[in-house]
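As promised in the previous annual report, we have extended the structural survey to additional targets. Below is the entry for Protein dpy-30 homolog.
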Amino acid sequence: MEPEQMLEGQTQVAENPHSEYGLTDNVEGFTISYTAGLQRIVENEKMNAEKSSKQKVDLQSLPTRAYLDQTVVPILLQGLAVLAKERPPNPIEFLASYLLKNKAQFEDRN
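The corresponding structure token record, generated without further manual editing, is:
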């Protein structure tokens, strides 16, 4: 059936129904941009992995006080502040529990 012979009440569908949203039928262009996006993601992940491995090496080479200041002291101080405020009957268990519950907040900073 030709487009001119459409039934009354039916609207003719444009060749690219997504053109109003700025999408095209250019599959090659999509593939190229998708591949470029993936390459950028892979490069970013490689750089992040290199940074984290360098940071691990840096932690090993730090003096004791600097190592503790960067890794343990921030969460320990916050835990001790909460401990002093709440004054539980079993402070060591409370502090241990606090450190385990909140370690994820501080691991990102290392």
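Helices lie at 27-61, 64-71, 73-86, 91-107. The chain has two domains: 25-61, 63-110. These points will be discussed at the next consortium meeting with the crystallography subgroup.
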